[in-house]
Amino acid sequence: MKSHMKSAAVPAWQRLQRSLERSEPNCAGDPRFVADRTELDSEDVGDMREICAACPLFRLCSAYQKLDKPRGGFWAGVAA
Questions:
Q1: Burial of 66 (0-12, 13-18, 19+ CB in 10 A)
Q2: Nearest residue to 76 (alpha-carbon basis) of 25, 9, 19, 23
Q3: In degrees, to the nearest 5, what angle opens at C-alpha 15 toward C-alphas 9 and 16?
């Protein structure tokens, strides 16, 4: 588990992790989702939001993102 994670986000992170064991997110293997946001242009961000919106894990990813506010990556359509 991430050491800097806010305690309120732990259950959401655990639910997301359990789901990742059964389903692959739409963003898997796409390096833009872990890139520094300054490296992304508006077309990338638009494409990434569409990928997120269609992802079977969107709801869980979004719940985690809202609680923990990750400091990097792209979570549920939001650049961190």
A1: middle
A2: 25
A3: 85
- Do 62 and 74 contact (CB within 8 A), yes or no? no
The reported pLDDT for the residue numbered 3 is 58
Average pLDDT over residues 59-73: 94
Tell which residue, 52, 43, 57, 54, has the closest CA to residue 74.
Answer: 52
* Arithmetic mean of pLDDT, 5-34: 94
Q: And the tokens for 55?
A: 């992802």
Q: What is the DSSP string of the chain?
A: --TT--GGGHHHHHHHHHHHHH---TTTT-GGGGS-GGG--HHHHHHHHHHHHT-TTHHHHHHHHHHH--SSSEETTEE-
31-52: pLDDT as tens digits = 999 999 899 999 999 999 999 9
